[in-house]
Amino acid sequence: MRFMAGRAITITSRIIFFVCALISLLTAVPYVASGGVDLPVQSEWIVFTVALALVGIFSVTFAVLPRSWIAKMCKKDRDDAQLFSAPLKLLGLFAAVFYLLALVAFLAPHSWDLDPQLWLTLCPLYAVKMLFDPSLVAVFFLFAPMNAAVYGALGLTLGCAWSAFRKRASSQTS
Q1: How far apart are CA 124 and CA 84, in angstroms?
Q2: pTM here?
Q3: How many CA atoms lie within 13 A of 3 on its CB side?
Q4: S-S: 24 plus which of 33, 50, 119, 153, CB 3.0-4.6 Å?
Q5: Long-range contacts made by residues 158-163, C-beta under 8 angstroms, separation at least 24?
Q6: Using an 8 Å Cβ cutoff, are 159 and 91 in contact?
Q7: Comparing C-alpha atoms, which of 13, 18, 94 is closest to residue 56?
Q8: pLDDT tier at 97, thresholds 50, 70, 90
Q9: How many CB atoms lie within 10 A of CB 9?
Q10: Domain residue ranges in the chain
Q11: What's the pLDDT tens digit per position in 43-87?
Q12: CA distance 170 to 174
């Protein structure tokens, strides 16, 4: 029974990683398509595009890599239940924090005069608010979850790197 639970967590984790990666890649598309021209502020749009694409590509790679390769990279046993725990925890933490930040960005009144460069970094879909005001339903069920997925993929990337380097550093000192 324990094997089945571990397998379900692994499969669910990989699906979540893949979905977050695809959303990160899809979020980069408007920046590439418009070239940053339609944005009301001058932004270094290429930085956003490259960052979103790199995080998306890494997350897709992690989602489809064989489990044995991931275990080898993290210096863990292939059947270790903790293999996906750190990346999954960081994914969840980043997703929750950046979902709330997206809500703040979209629901903030125009009188707050938020810095567009900062908010484009914290919420890549903030460009949508700069171009037109989306509905409340769209913010709660489309834009904020997409922002959460993008930063969830970043959390996944950082969690994988932390797992890999933490184990390598501790194995070199022993």
Answers
A1: 27
A2: 0.74
A3: 1
A4: 153
A5: 158/90, 158/94, 159/86, 159/87, 159/88, 159/89, 159/90, 159/91, 160/58, 160/62, 160/70, 160/73, 160/74, 160/86, 160/87, 162/86, 162/90, 163/74, 163/76, 163/86, 163/87
A6: yes
A7: 18
A8: very high
A9: 15
A10: 2-173
A11: 566 777 788 888 889 889 888 888 888 878 777 776 666 677 778
A12: 7
Can you tell me the distance from the alpha carbon of 77 to that of 81, in angstroms, rounded to the nearest whole number?
9
- Whole-angstrom distance, CA of residue 135 vs CA of residue 148: 18
The rounded distance, in Å, linking the Cα atoms of 127 and 23 is: 16
User: At residue 102, what is the residue type?
Assistant: A
Place of tokens 């089945």: 4
Two structure tokens written together for 157: 């990337």
DSSP state string for 5-20: HHHHHHHHHHHHHHHH
